[in-house]
TrEMBL record:
Positions of the catalytic residues: H67
Annotated ranges, domain Plant heme peroxidase family profile: 25-175
Record's protein name: peroxidase
Function as written in the Swiss-Prot or TrEMBL entry: Removal of H(2)O(2), oxidation of toxic reductants, biosynthesis and degradation of lignin, suberization, auxin catabolism, response to environmental stresses such as wounding, pathogen attack and oxidative stress. These functions might be dependent on each isozyme/isoform in each plant tissue.
Keyword Iron: yes
Record bears the keyword Cell inner membrane: no
S-S bonds: C35-C119, C69-C74
GO term, biological process aspect, one: response to oxidative stress
Sites where the protein binds substrate: P167
EC number: 1.11.1.7
Signal sequence region: 1-24
Length: 214
């Protein structure tokens, strides 16, 4: 069995950004005329947040992007909140472990972008999330890569779209490839889909004895 490395997971994130947006008309210079300094604006905002929360920022942002893309594509619907009788994706039990630092990076970067008159209300949160995921990879010492832009923001977010669409921590080897199109990639890096999925216990009260043989 092959072990999963950090670099392999980072490459999966890159592949996700390509797979789930390949059908859209995206290109690297999408905002060249409407917001020419977008890349540097977002990068500066991400770097500032990264320095403030260096322990959690990269993992939180990557997991947010990962969960967003698996539910109806990479359109930032994972950031939308619940309202009225509708429970949003992020409030589904499968997403309850998403750390707030990920969405906070996107929200703060979006605010900084909108402070620039030429860019105000022209850049989608979906693109900012994709850029933020790329930038935290580089800040964490991972590979640098280019992404294509032009995603629209999702306007619908429902917890009903979450069940059976996210890889969970109990996936078997046989089940895992069905959650990611690249089954050949997963066969080489078995732990890849499981590397960012885990079950968190929120209500544990029992104190367990340590196993000194571990």
């Amino acid at each position: 069995m092959h072990s999963f490395s950090c670099s392999q997971f980072l490459h999966l994130v890159l592949l996700l950004s390509v797979i789930f947006t390949s059908s859209a008309k995206l290109h690297r210079n999408f905002y060249r005329n409407s917001c020419p300094k977008l890349e540097s604006i977002v990068r500066s905002a991400v770097e500032e947040k990264y320095r403030q929360t260096i322990v959690t920022a990269a993992a939180a942002t990557l997991k947010l992007f990962f969960h967003d893309c698996f539910i109806q594509g990479c359109y930032a619907s994972i950031i939308l909140g619940s309202s009225g009788n509708n429970t949003a994706e992020k409030d589904h039990p499968d997403n309850i472990s998403l750390a707030g630092d990920g969405s906070d990076i996107v929200i703060k970067a979006k605010a900084v972008v909108d402070d620039v008159p030429a860019c105000k209300n022209k850049v989608s949160c979906a693109d900012i999330l994709a850029m933020a995921a790329r930038d935290v990879v580089a800040l964490a010492g991972g590979p640098q890569y280019d992404i294509e832009l032009g995603r629209g923001d999702g306007t619908i977010s429902s917890q009903n779209s979450v069940p059976d669409n996210l890889p969970h921590s109990r996936l078997s080897f046989e089940e895992a490839p069905s959650y990611v199109c690249l089954s050949w990639f997963l066969s080489e890096t078995f732990d890849c889909p499981l590397g960012s999925t885990y079950a968190r216990i929120f209500t544990l009260q029992q104190v367990l004895k340590q196993d000194i043989q571990l």
